[in-house]
Amino acid sequence: MSIRAKLAWTFILLLIFGITAISSYSILFIRNYLLSEGEKQILNDTEWLTITIENLRLDDQFETNLNEAARTSGYRLSIYDEQGHLFAEVPFFETEQAPDIIDDQILLSLNSANERFLAGPSDGDQLTAYSKLASQFNPAGFLRVSIPKDQIYEPIKTIRWIIYTGMFISIGLVLIVSVLFSRYISRPILQLESAAREIADGNTDRTLDLDRKDEFGTLAKSLNRMAEKLRSDNLELVKMNQKQSQFFADITHEIRNPLHTIAGSLEMLQLGGLDSEKEVKYLQTAERQTHRIDRLFKDLLTLQRYDSDEHFIRKKTFPLCSVIDPLLETYENEATEKGLKLVGKTDKEDVFADPDKIEQVLENLITNAIKFTNKGEIQINIERSDTNNTIKVEVSDTGVGISDEHLERLFDRFYRTDKARSRDKGGTGLGLSVVKSILNAHGSEIHVKSTPGKGSKFFFYLPQRATS
Q: Fewer CB within a 10 Å sphere, N or C end of the chain?
């Protein structure tokens, strides 16, 4: 059964039950009220009937006057003598006759000094009242006044029909209102269910436009936010999947090329008959490619640890010059061979970081600068920052520079601004990705400013002391 049908039947049954209960209670209340008022009325009427009958003379007009009193009052009047024997009754009905003798208990009550009027039993079909007479004009001793209860309940027939008519009209209206109300209530639920099902099936573009200020409106907004979040996550997953596919393709390509080169060199060496100069050349080529593969796997290992190892870095306070000075000595010859100056302007500034990882960052930046600088100089500068107690570390060169179109993806894994030239220079395509990952693990970022043909500046910031 649908939720709309459940809601409709729930409202219908509840309202029908309520209307029926109220109608039944109303009829019962009116019935009891009429009976109570009838008992009061019969006692009041018995009082004036008693006075009237006490003043009737026993003559030819006695029966006529008695009938007139019965007709005027609307009651059935039964007259008993002082011994309690019936001697007159009006109006006379053979099927509805009064008892010939008054009950002894009733006689005892009427003869008591405290009661003159007495209501009879009310559990039968008649409503009755008794009165003791004290007449000087006729032998009447007691009066019995009675009226059928159906006559008392006569108005309730009309009232009952009015109530029942109203009840059936109300039930009809309830049926209509319940159906309309259930549709009104269930419409947003069905819309929410339909939207949730479509979103679950992958249609994250599905949105709900419920202009409501109640919980349904809030739920619709939450569902729209969920769909937007799923849509955003799906796009991110698509991008990640594309990057992952490209990543594996690049790894395969990066390994295949040096392996082919090594295989070719070994094949040439196996042919024999080569002079010593060519043999050395092929051996050096194979060695360079072997080193290239080694660097590739080292960089991959660094990135893998960054992605999965929460203890990727181990910070401590150390002087930056203890890292920079050995690097200057190591790469001075390589820079000199290309006609470059490698200059380090370093002060004795301490930083709180992982010295091995910062050395790896600077090494990558220095080797990149040497590769892409053909003349001029490469500088490593450190200076105290004016804010946040940090040290700025900068590596600048006068190389070929980087155009703006490449800056956004410069730190992506295996991204090269010029793939052919970069691969010829022995790069793995992971150096700047490693730099970014290490600095991110330190809570820092790598920044770059570059002008094509004039050179580039890479810089980052490190704290002087541990932060709480």
A: C
In this predicted structure, the answer to whether residue 334 has a pLDDT above a threshold of 70 is yes
Instruction: Report H helices in 372-453.
Output: 404-407, 419-424, 431-441
d(CA 336, CA 456): 19
- 8 Å CB contact between 299 and 430: yes
**Average pLDDT of 99-116?**
77
Please list the residue range(s) of the chain that carry CATH number 3.30.565.10: 313-463
Q: What is the mean pLDDT of residues 278-294?
A: 80
Distance, in Å, from the CA atom of 111 to the CA atom of 198, rounded to the nearest integer, reads 91
Cross-strand partners of 381: 345, 394
Which residues, including other chains, have CB under 8 Å from residue 449's CB and lie 6 or more apart?
A: 456, 457
| CATH superfamily membership of 313-463 | Histidine kinase-like ATPase, C-terminal domain (3.30.565.10)
Amino acid at 320: L
Distance of CA 360 to the CA centre of its chain: 48
Q: Round to whole Å and give the CA distance between 5 and 15.
A: 15
What pLDDT score does 396 carry? 92
User: Cα 324–327–329 angle (5° rounding)?
Assistant: 115
Span of 42-56, 65-79, 123-137 with lowest mean pLDDT: 123-137
Tell me the HSE value of 351 on the side-chain side, using a 13 A CA sphere: 29
Question: Which band of pLDDT confidence, cut at 50, 70 and 90, is reported for residue 253?
Answer: low
pTM of the model: 0.45
